[in-house]
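Morning F.,

Quick status update on the modeling queue. The single chain you submitted on Monday has been processed. Sequence for confirmation:
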Amino acid sequence: MTDETKKTGTDAAENETVIDLDAARAADNEAQAGAEEVAAGPDPIALLRDENEKLRDQMLRLAAEMENLRRRTARDVKDAKSYAVSAFARDMLGVSDNLRRALDAMPEEQRTGDVAGFAEGVEMTERSMLAALERHGVKQIEAEGQRFDPNFHQAMFEVPNPDIPANTVVQVVQAGYVIGDRVLRPAMVGVSKGGPRSEGPASAE
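Structure tokens below.
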């Protein structure tokens, strides 16, 4: 082998080595670029944590809404049970009022003989009706002697009386009733006027 041939082979080998080094550097640069892109992009763990927080927040909100719905439903069912008979009870009070008017129109001295039995039957009917209403939560307001309370009483007239504290119920024209904690019908009353002012709180059952 001549010197020229050896020199040509050596030059070729050196060129291949340079080419291989350039390829290695290019591959290394590409790998570094890819790593930088991954590092510059969003962290997948952070993304998962954010998504987990969002799902947890949605779950808590949904649980709170369901609890509120359950409470509202329970309250509505309770109110429906307690006050479903309000309209019917109010109508029955009108019938009871008429029975009481029939008894009041009949003086005690005239309740003799056959009339006595009739009057007793009317009284029994009235008591039975009021007892049935009370079993369903309808109760009469005890108004007479109480301080006037606009939440339970409706003033029809004033009665001048300096011996009784002012704004005291002295006469009940029509009985009032409550159902549960609601007023079914206020009591129609007459209140005192001209006496010392009552300092006590208003009270009525």
